[in-house]
Amino acid sequence: MADETESVSLRPPEGSIVDTRYWHLLDDGRVQCDVCPRACKLHDGQRGLCFVRGAEAGRIKLFSYGRSSGFCIDPIEKKPLNHFLPGTSVLSFGTAGCNLACKFCLSPDTLVATTRGMRRIAELFESCAEKISQHGGGIGLPGSLHAWTRGGKQARVAKVFAHRYSGELLSLQAACCPPILLTPNHKVFAALWSDLEDVRSIAAAELTTDHYLVIPREQAGNGIRIDAAGTLDTGAALLVNVRRVEQTLYQGPVYNLEIDDPDHSYLAPFVAVSNCQNWDMSKSREMDTLADRASPEELADAADRLGCASVAFTYNDPVVFMEYAIDTARACRARGIRSVAVTAGYMCAEPRAEFYRHMDAANVDLKAFTERFYYKVCGGALAPVLETLEYLKRETTVWFEITTLLIPGENDSDDELDRLTRWIADRLGPDVPLHFTAFHPDWKMLDKPRTPSATLTRARHIALANGLRYVYTGNVHDREGGSTYCPHCHTRLIERDWYELGEWKLTDTGGCRRCGAAIPGVFAGPPGDWGTRRLGVRLAARVETAR
Ligand code: SF4
Fold this sequence. Notes:
binds iron/sulfur cluster; alpha+beta; disordered N terminus; globular
């Protein structure tokens, strides 16, 4: 993986950089990170594929300690965990970085509003007189190119990034705009219907039909007349409703721009999108969005104060920021608050053992049951994920559940689902809960979800037939598939509709009230009453204004 790295000059605040333990020196002078199977081999000044770890002074350091992309209180069912303190609230947060090849770019045909008119982003790269080649792509230096920002200003395009990509793209469709094809983590400027003045930079994957995208009025020079029908006019900008977000798989080049403007925005083609955030050199911009700062103690205190039963390391995989997650879990444990890892399970044995000593629960994303899928869609491998699952079962007391996001035609065949669920039953036992979720967790599309409910139900039936006792359908209204049943007397013990709890027929220690059978999981008294709410919270001073 040595060539999937890049030198960077941007340096986060000093307190964010900490030494790490899992690395070793190589004969050629490089240093290898041993946290995940990517095994990035780095020269000083280079970052690993996850970008938040990198080599400095002959050792691997973490560059995102104590920094977060934001905090939210969620129902624990949203992680998803159905057998872990049901009904309670969890303080969720993430940092930046991903070790499964997350990308932050736009498709080649995306039009960008430049001062020379609408131009394809691929053409902007091709037309750069000077290009710096990198493995898998390059950086173009365009000279005198200028683009329009969301503030209506002209700003210099400092760089055009290109790299190869294999994975999901989202087609973002808003009223009166052509669709934009972009990677799920690419950020666009949007506001929620409930507070249209609060425009933020939001990952495409988090957009719902409650969001409105921003079209600045000032697009002089584009020669484009925007039809304002169906938009909300705020004076400086038009707000257009997100109509649909659809997923597609893609292999090929993707692109992004670095804009020389404090706002870090440009228009694609009319709506405001965030400055470059691709995974290599420009991914340093993702670090810019780590605007909230909180020490482990502050986080644990906040969870305590806000009445959360647990803290979840989520949004991005805590594997890559394990030092921060572990210190936070320690601080939480001292206050009686549990810690939850939401992870893809892509981790090496030694750091994995240390990491899970501090976790109380985990939801592991088992993306598919073929190496082909892992290689093609995530650029990773299946075997290490299965090892993590077996490790959790055999060598820890961590409560864990598994999630498989079903993508039609990719990982939802009867044969694959049969093999996946047989493996779980054989190697992990029948009591590990399995969630089949519809693509994508947070989307509220106007038409049917991309994954039909029938697919989730079919998958659930296959898993039940293979002996799994707790199989759930997720992100759909499906009382039968979302509820927990006693495997002995078949009483419905916990009724769920999406994240909402209904009927409750468990004892305080998790036994069936009818037949007394013990239900596996972590149960402590009656269910919590957090409900389905999602509440954004601000814990500490911002380190900079990124939204
Ligand atoms: S955590 Fe994984 S992706 Fe990140 S630097 Fe280490 S080996 Fe590379």
